[in-house]
Design goal:
There is one protein chain. Helix 3 links the parallel strand 4 and strand 5. This protein has two domains: 94 residues, Udp-n-acetylmuramoylalanyl-d-glutamate--2,6- Diaminopimelate Ligase, Chain: A, domain 1, CATH 3.40.1390; 171 residues, Hexapeptide repeat proteins (UDP N-Acetylglucosamine Acyltransferase, domain 1, 3 Solenoid). Helix content is 18%, strand content 26%. It has five helices and 31 strands. By secondary structure, it is α/β, with parallel strands linked by helices.
Length: 295
């Protein structure tokens, strides 16, 4: 695979040898001269340093670094991109990965389940009655979809009566659900996983949760029932989201956060309980001052 073929596929500019050839992808810091990699460390200085040090044959990197990289005369052939990680994924999918999709014989699929086109269901996944799955969905090993959630009414003597879940689970197109993740169906209205959303392993998504499109819900996240999450939101690992709250569009929830109240659009929150990152930094600063700790 030559650099000019990759650049042509991406409709991208090349710096360096267009005939440079690679045979496989590699990790930026350990790649060899016959390997393709990408660089997107979200810090210009670190990007420039990493590209100058890598032994990779071809690097897909940020277009805005062009002038500095040309001046540095770095060794790898460069392919310039606005979205290096995304374009690297496109190249792998087009040239290097030969994926076989289908439904594993060991998956359990209940009656009245609707499954779209090109769906990939891995071993020992369990999909309960009434679940609707869109096109190009991936359901990884041991995921449980459409089970009932935990919801009881308490009687006058303290006894508990389960409330039957009469609704369903809707998984829209291009969703990826990680291994060992549970997504519960709705009680009186559907649980909905929006188009293009990716959910990591070992997550628990409660009944009647509604997740927007193109969100990333990373591993070990718990989202309690009836919470709504806007489009393009990122939830970092080990986060816990309270029931019946609204998290806006394009929100970033930091690692290990405990979210107990509504979050507006375009907000970054961290901590337990989670607060806006500016407030968190101010609180940390004041605490250090009180303790006499130098930054």
């Amino acid at each position: 695979m030559k650099a000019k073929e990759i650049a042509s596929f991406l409709k991208a500019e090349i710096i360096g040898d267009p005939m440079k050839e690679v045979t496989k992808p590699g990790y930026l810091h350990t790649a060899k001269s016959d390997e393709l990699t990408y660089c997107f460390l979200k810090d210009y200085a670190k990007d420039l340093e990493a590209i100058s040090k890598t032994s990779a044959g071809i690097v897909i990197c940020q277009k805005r670094l062009k002038d500095k990289l040309v001046a540095m005369k770095v060794k790898p052939t460069l392919i310039l991109s606005e979205v290096p990680k995304y374009d690297f994924a496109r190249v792998l999918e087009e040239f290097f990965v030969k994926e076989t999709r289908g439904i594993s014989p060991s998956a359990y699929i209940d009656k009245n389940v609707k499954i779209g086109k090109n769906v990939d269901i891995h071993p020992h996944a369990v999909i309960y009655e009434g679940t609707e799955i869109g096109d190009n969905v991936t359901i990884r090993a041991n995921a449980v979809l459409g089970a009932e959630g935990l919801d009881y009414g308490r009687g006058p003597k303290g006894d508990l009566k389960r409330i039957p879940h009469m609704s369903k689970l809707i998984i829209q197109d291009n969703v990826d659900i990680g291994s060992n993740t549970t997504v519960q169906k709705g009680m009186l209205r559907p649980t909905i996983i929006g188009e293009g959303t990716k959910i990591g392993p070992n997550c628990d998504i409660g009944h009647e949760v509604r997740i927007g499109k193109y969100c990333i819900i990373t591993g070990m996240t718990l989202i309690a029932g009836a919470t709504e999450i806007g489009d393009y939101t990122f939830i970092a690992p080990h986060s816990t989201i309270k029931n019946s709250i609204k998290i806006g569009r394009n929100v970033f929830v930091g690692i290990g956060s405990l979210v107990i109240r509504d979050v507006p659009d375009e907000t970054t929150i961290v901590g337990r309980p989670a607060i806006e990152i500016e407030k968190y930094r101010e609180q940390r600063k004041r605490l250090k001052e009180l303790l006499g700790v130098k930054s």
